[in-house]
Every structure is written in structure tokens, then in C-alpha cells.
Specification:
Length: 448
């Protein structure tokens, strides 16, 4: 992100990005009251700083520094999201989150792959599958208005938040495998399709080792008072980076390693949420840089290469491709049809889709990379607009209906074993909802 050319560091870019971060910090609360989230603000600032009347930064689409920033941002977000999960509790949870993640997400990838194969017959089946996987993950940050709207039952808000927090990590192996398969025909990856399987297994092994050993070490150190929470928070950040970088050094999948490490760490440190705070905030800050990059380098070229096919696929990805699998996964759940439709609609595409798109563009040949660029740009842009515009009207219309149902109905079911994802779109990490408010809401849910 901090490069003006492909070759070196650009101080002017650092000045511009730092100034944008400072401006957001000064006016964020005011803009949030107008439903302008951090992702939207940084996309607009990135666009203005690079394509406005007086462009101040020039950034290359395939910049190695930009790719590194995007990868680290996703790795930190994956670790932070997964660290909120207690695997032992998750195994026994056969509730609504498991339906969306275990049934809805794979179906979404499959239906998206079929749609891409039909709309883009020239890209090949593996690239079509890659497109389906890239646009499958959702991002709670772009739906922050819904996540904090008390007119929506807390159970539905938690469900959408938990899904968003975990589906990008689950989609990562699919993206990695399909990308490797798509470029294998050009002899970019030796070893055919066995290589991505080795990368996934290796990343899983490194993630488990770093997460478990690091988790037990942090917990033991705190109990023995060898360290305190602020220093341990830095240790957790170091563990997230260690899992990712060790996997990269070993030639295996760093994203899988970061996600599995976070899940392993969260299982052995269940209840020590304070030590994970700094890693969440660091991931949030890095994600803002990715949103700046999206506005700076993807929107203009993305819409330039987009055709009717990219627009059609984006519309399908935000509607049928998402809502159909969600409806199938929630069959027999007891949720009202309007609730199922609401859950299906509010699946905004965000950080994971952008990062997966950037990585794929860098790997694929020009025709396929242009299709990915157009699909990602149009899908994320339409998602930002459509979900942002529809959030308040649907919440005011459907929220009271869902909240007015009997407390025994599944609309009010919570997921107590899974902490909800922090919402960087509404400020840094946990600033979205004060701890006391979140605690009181949790107690009200339990009592109901």
C-alpha cells in the first residue's frame, strides 16, 4: 500500500495514508451516525487520493508491498475471528451457525461456481469454481448498521456475525485449492493438484502447533503472573504473525495456518478475551489499508474491464447464489420465511473477497485475472451500496416483526458458545458496543 511504484517505498504514499487514518479518527463518530462505516470511508478516500482532480498517490495493481499488506491483514483477521471460538463447544453446537457454515457456505460456493461457468464459459471450470469461492465469504463490517440495530433480535444479529467471522476462514482452503488448480494448466505450480493438498495439511499442522503451544504458554504465564494482559496482548499478535510467517517459510498455506492457530488458541484460552483485543485492533487497522487499496487500485480498472457478464454474476452472487443456499441450509429450523429471507439478503461481501481477488489477480493469466478483477470490483461495490441503502428500511420494517415473535422461537436463539465478531466498520474492535451494554444484552438474552 505504501508504494508509489512497483520498485520502492514512497514517503508521499505514507503521508497520504497516515493523513487519511488521522482524518477518520477525528470524524469517525460523526460519520457513523450517518451510517458511513470505515470501509466505505477508506474506499472513497482511496479513490479520491488516486483518481481525483489532484491524484496524490500512484499504486500498482500487482505491487508486492500491497499484496503483503493484504495478506497480513487477512491473516490477522482470520486469527482474531477464529480465536473467539471454543472448538469443544463448537463440535457440540448443531444450531443455526453450523447450518449456515456447514451447509450454506459449501452450497454457495457450488452454486456460484455453476453460475460462473455458465456466464464465463471461456475461463474454465477451475476458475469458475475460484470465482464461486471468492465471492462466498461475508463481512459483518459492511453490515454494522444491522449488527447494532436493536430492532433486530439479538439471536439473528449474532447469527449473521458468527457466520461472517468464520466463513472466510472456511472458504480459504477452497480458494487456495481452486486457484492452484486454475494455474496448474500453465505449469505455474509444480506437482499438479497434490501441491495444494500438501499446503493445506501443512498449514493445518503448523496452525495447531502454534495455537496450542502458544495458548497454553500465554495462559500459564498469566496464571503464574510472569506477564500481564497488556504484554500478553502483544504476545497474541506475535503468535498470529508467527503462524502465518512460519507457514509461508515452510511453503504451505499461511491463511489456513493463521485460522487454525486462532481456533486452537481460542480453545485453550477460552475466557481470556482481553488478551486478544490488540490483535483484533491490529487486524482492523490493516483491513482499513486494504479498503483504501480497493478504492485506489481496483474500482476504476475493475469497472473498465467489467462487461454485462461481471454485472450479471455480481447480481446473482448477492441474491440467488447467496439466498438460495441459505434457505436450503435453514430448512426445518423453524425460522419464519421473512427471517430466512432477511438472513439470506444480509451477506455483504467485503475484506476476504477483496484480498482473495487481489491474490488471484496476481496469479492468473490476463484474461482470467481481468474477469476476477471485474467480478470482485462490481460485487463488492454493489454490496456496499445495496446493503447500505437497504439496511435501515428493512430493519424498521422486518425488525419489529421478528422481535415480536415468541421468545421461544428460533429468532431469539443465541449462540452462547461463539463470541460474535468485532465490527471494525464502527470503530476499532470492541468499541462497537460497550462491554457493559454487550454484557447486559447477553444477560437479557439468557433470561428470555
Amino acid at each position: 500500500m505504501l508504494v508509489g511504484t512497483e520498485q520502492g517505498f514512497d514517503v508521499q504514499a505514507l503521508v497520504v495514508v497516515s493523513a487519511c487514518l488521522a482524518v477518520w479518527g477525528l470524524v469517525s463518530s460523526r460519520l457513523q451516525r450517518l451510517n458511513v462505516s470505515a470501509p466505505i470511508a477508506f474506499v472513497l478516500m482511496g479513490l479520491a487520493m488516486t483518481h481525483g482532480p489532484w491524484p496524490l498517490v500512484t499504486v500498482g495493481l500487482k505491487s508486492s508491498t500491497l499484496r503483503s499488506v493484504a495478506e497480513i491483514a487477512l491473516a490477522l483477521v482470520l486469527f482474531a475471528d477464529a480465536s473467539r471460538v471454543n472448538v469443544r463447544a463448537l463440535r457440540s453446537d448443531a444450531g443455526l451457525p453450523s447450518r449456515l457454515l456447514g451447509i450454506g457456505l459449501p452450497l454457495t460456493i457450488g452454486v456460484g461456481a455453476i453460475a460462473a461457468a455458465v456466464i464465463f464459459p471461456g475461463v474454465g471450470w477451475w476458475t469458475a469454481a475460484l470465482l464461486g469461492a471468492i465471492v462466498a465469504p461475508t463481512d459483518a463490517a459492511l453490515g454494522a448498521t444491522i449488527m447494532t440495530d436493536l430492532r433486530i433480535p439479538s439471536g439473528i444479529r449474532r447469527l449473521l456475525n458468527v457466520e461472517s467471522g468464520l466463513n472466510d476462514g472456511i472458504a480459504t482452503p477452497f480458494v487456495n485449492f481452486f486457484l492452484a488448480a486454475a494455474v496448474a494448466t500453465e505449469a505455474v505450480h509444480g506437482g499438479g493438484l497434490t501441491r495444494p493438498l500438501v499446503e493445506l495439511l501443512g498449514g493445518t499442522a503448523i496452525g495447531i502447533a502454534v495455537g496450542l503451544i502458544g495458548g497454553y504458554a500465554v495462559r500459564s504465564s498469566l496464571r503464574a503472573r510472569w506477564s500481564d494482559v497488556p504484554i500478553s496482548s502483544l504476545t497474541v499478535l506475535a503468535l498470529a504473525l508467527l503462524a502465518y510467517s512460519a507457514a509461508i517459510m515452510a511453503g504451505v498455506n499461511g491463511f489456513v495456518a493463521a485460522f487454525v492457530a486462532g481456533m486452537s488458541f481460542g480453545t485453550v484460552t477460552h475466557g481470556l478475551d482481553e488478551v486478544k483485543a490488540f490483535t483484533e485492533d491490529a487486524g482492523t487497522l490493516m483491513s482499513w489499508l486494504v479498503w483504501f487499496a480497493f478504492g485506489a487500485i481496483m474500482i476504476v480498472p475493475g469497472f473498465e474491464v467489467a462487461t454485462w457478464g461481471e454485472v450479471l454474476f455480481a447480481l446473482l452472487a448477492l441474491t440467488v447464489v447467496r439466498m438460495g443456499p441459505v434457505a436450503v441450509s435453514l430448512l426445518g429450523s423453524g425460522l419464519r420465511p421473512t427471517t430466512v429471507g432477511f438472513i439470506g439478503w444480509f451477506g455483504p461481501r467485503g475484506l476476504a473477497t477483496v484480498v482473495f481477488g487481489l491474490l488471484s489477480i496476481d496469479e492468473l493469466a490476463t484474461p482470467e485475472s481481468n474477469v476476477v478483477l471485474g467480478v470482485v470490483t462490481v460485487t463488492v461495490t454493489l454490496s456496499v451500496l445495496a446493503h447500505g441503502i437497504s439496511a435501515n428500511p428493512l430493519a424498521s420494517r422486518l425488525g419489529p416483526r421478528m422481535s415480536g415473535t415468541s421468545p421461544e422461537r428460533p429468532e431469539h436463539t443465541t449462540a452462547p458458545a461463539l463470541r460474535t465478531r468485532s465490527l471494525p466498520g464502527r470503530g476499532l474492535g470492541r468499541a462497537t458496543t460497550p462491554r457493559s451494554t454487550a454484557h447486559e444484552e447477553s444477560e437479557r438474552d439468557a433470561s428470555s
